[in-house]
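Box 3.1 A note on notation
Throughout this textbook, protein chains are presented in two layers. The first layer is the amino acid sequence; the second is a token string describing backbone geometry. Keep the layers aligned when reading.
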Amino acid sequence: MSKMKRRSFIKNGSKAVAAFSIVPSSVFGKKLGYVAPSDKVNLACVGIGNRGAAVVNSLADTGYCNVVALCDVDMGAPHTLGVINRFPDAPHFQDFREMFDKMSDSFDAVSVGTPDFSHFPVTMQAMSAGKHVYVEKPMARTFNEVELMMQGAKKHKVVTQMGNQGHSEANYFQFKAWKEAGIIKDVTAVTAHMNSARRWHGWDTNITHFPDGEPIPETLDWDTWLGTAAKHEYQKDFINGQWRCWYDFGMGALGDWGAHILDTIHQFLDLGLPYEVDPVKVDGHNYFFYPQSTTLDFKFPERGSMPPMTISWYDGVDNLPELPEGYGASELDPDIPPPSNGAIQPMKLNPGKIIYSKDLIFKGGSHGSTLSIIPEKTAKKMEKKLPEVPESTSNHFANFLLSCKGEEETRSPFEIAGPLCQVFNLGVIAQWLNEKILFDRETKQITNNPIANALLKGPAPRQGWEEFYIV
């Protein structure tokens, strides 16, 4: 089917589907959103291997959805078989565009568990077809793509959720309660740290070109895997999680972990976008894959009564931040999902953050890990002042599906997750250039470097993929 026919099919088909499967909430007496006529959300899953498999299984485990379609560019490869075997009746596709062409009237929502750079086209097509979307973090690889995704969600009025799962766990509700009670106030600095070994650590940083191409596996549709990205020859170091190493495909340590460490800080301290990003340290800089270690300072202005503040991001095995007196032990949340290449190994300093306010210092971990006040003697003095923290009504996956049914509101919709991801987009530009960038928060432009400003949009999409950049 031609591009124009496909776009016409999607637009016309989505209207017909909307008339049939999306009923105003008032009909069913619901307070929020929309309610499907069935008790379960019909879900199409794009990306069903590795992390994508965990997303599909977690959504299905809620009991709130029917998995009705499976799509993966490497359909039938070993890492996809678990999901294929669990849902034997779901039709298979290797190209999400074909799935939409043939089955758009059969599902209400889409999960996107693909590499970072390919979140964008799948999400844009889903929203244009009136489908609710659950997309893994980060939302997209470029600042402009995130901007378009936020615009698309607003235009098409669909339910959206970014997959930073801790945003529905204890840390979310504690931070919110402590902020509202005035326990967390007057924050001036945050240290965020993720110092675990990464896939690219130890690679030769004197790189002058991408690795040579290799034969394409029989199960893999390489052209569709590339999607909007520039043409590359197939390489095993581009797939199955290795894509995270490369600027062309992934968002490095910052994009991988930032949304799990800084999400509540960003939302509840109303940070928005920084006015400056300073690459304080970039060891192993090159223009192909991410550095061996990085320290980035993100500077934010006053926000109402809240003072200016700086987030200092540390990654790299030996790039540990200075710890405050009385920090104590660094704990690792056992509920953090393991990476596809093995379990997270406990370290001297596990992923997390330190929050410095005028009167108190807090330490916390990643994902749903709660904060504690340090040192311990200060924490004991504060015990009676701490508010009661409500428990979560739903995990992140159930929250999304219940929101599709009109029974909850998502906690990490694009309007909240988008600006958070754009902070990381700006950080990656500073990493790639290894230069300070100055950002105008009003015009959303980088003012001190035309190359950096051009990187907000990034390179033009490959021929045939331009349509996804139209909201």
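The chain has two domains: 3-167, 169-203+236-390+421-455. The longest strand covers residues 187-194.
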